[in-house]
Sequence to fold (434 residues):
Amino acid sequence: MKEIPDSDSLSYSCAMNKFLIYEEKHHIVSAYRELILAGEIADRLQNKEKQQRVEEKLKNLFLKLEQYEKARQIILKNHNEYKKSGNVSKQIDCIIDLAKIYLHEKNYDLAAKKLDDAKYLSDSISQSNSQIDIKVLSVQLLYEQKKYKEALELFTKDSSFLTLLKLTKQDKYVDIIKIHVDFLNGEKESALSQYRKLIKEIPQEANLIHYKESLMETASLLGLNNESIAIANDLIQHYEKYNEYEKLKSLHQFLDTTYYKANDFKNAYLAKEKYGFYDKKLKDLSKENELYALEIEAANKKMEKEKIEAAEKIIKRNNIQYTGISLAIFTLFVILLLFGAFKVSETMIRTLGFFTFIFFFEFIILIADHWIHDITHGEPWKIMAFKIVLISILMPFHHWIEHKVISFLTSHNLILRSDIFTKFFRKTEKLSTS
Fold:
């Protein structure tokens, strides 16, 4: 028989599905709310896999909105958890994610530092997959800073790394960097010859689009304006399908400069207009993302307020119940004392005393429970230790005080009645006759 999922698991799946639908429709705030709901359910289920999935989606959502600080906070939180649990592999993944954010922000110094940290951890556990990611990112970092010689050294000094790049069809990046190095060394003919060879070797496949930007820059570097323009126009057609406005803006800026170099002023003007169009589009999107961020902040505050109000309601409810229990116990003690003041059977006094003291000491334990859970943070062995100490004190005291009080009430029953109440009635009679 198939295992039927519980209501929380179904609620989690429902929230995640709704998140995906809202995300696809670009309803960011609604998507965020569903993700937060899924996170709360995952926390309630104490399911690490579900919690990590929510954290990953939340991180990607913030990256999409260019809310890098919030994405960074999530990564750092995960990193600290993995550090506590001793999961070095996951720690490396978190550090690599931080390096990617710093690289995107063009904070090259911090990106380099994080890559060094990741490399140190990766070498300590000999994890080949992460070592490859770190090297690729290190090359990308050097390439973006136009440090082509250092990038080439990273490629060439590790033969196993080159072999892996060939298997993943990324080895042509080495040739592109070699062209840049030769050009910088003044060997323009060698660079041009390598470029011609490279163009023939790279197949014109859509999945190799990532090479084209590097080839475009290389062709421009070698003064091949017409070829770089043709590659740029191919890239524009590709990125227009996916509304990659940042890329489109950058490409039209490149075309404006290149057309101007080629004395094609008409196309340079058109490219500049397109650049302005995409620049405005990006500014509008940035404002939209800012609005989304503000809406998310407002949604956070609203949810926080709702949580505080719910917590206050629980405290109010509990306080009412505690007050009711306290009054009930007080009433029982008053009745017990009255039983001792009047002629009531010993059995009845003992029975009422038994239940009164049970209620009283259970109430003490009930109050102590919250305090114990706060101190122990819910750790079973600590709770058990506290309970043993508490009960070892309360149980003997319970029996001793119950015995003393019941004995007192039963042995002084008639004395109390005659000495207190009879004297009281006599005094009232005297006052009335006088």
In short: Residues 265-341 form the longest helix (77 residues). Residues 342-433 form one domain. The two ends are 91 Å apart (CA to CA). The chain has a mean pLDDT of 80.
